[in-house]
Design brief:
Blueprint (H helix, E strand, L loop, with lengths): L1 E7 L4 H11 L7 E7 L4 H7 L5 E4 L2 E3 L6 H14 L4
Parallel strand pairs: 1-2
Antiparallel strand pairs: 1-3, 3-4
């Protein structure tokens, strides 16, 4: 199963939209979602403050400017192909 890391923060409408888009693929590309609040870790805050939301799968990331339906599907599809159990 894919592991999706979702960098986010509270009260972020862009994050809510990205998470909703991501959830559209839950059945076709099963994944485990790990939500990380960037304010809970100084390194995440420094790295992602201006980029959130960020979706990361298998070390590949999409930031706020790259997140859309097609980019998420492509990332999930390509990551699933690379997964050993796929």
């Amino acid at each position: 199963m894919l592991r999706v890391i979702f960098y986010t923060k509270e009260l972020c409408s862009l994050c809510d939209d990205a998470e909703a888009l991501l959830s559209l693929f839950e059945n076709e590309y099963p994944y485990e979602l790990e939500k990380r609040d960037i304010y809970s870790n100084d390194l995440w805050l420094e790295q992602y403050q201006l980029e959130i939301p960020v979706i990361e799968i298998e070390g590949k990331q999409l930031n706020v400017e790259e997140i859309n339906y097609n980019s998420i599907e492509s990332l999930l599809k390509n990551s699933q192909k690379e997964e050993p159990d796929a």
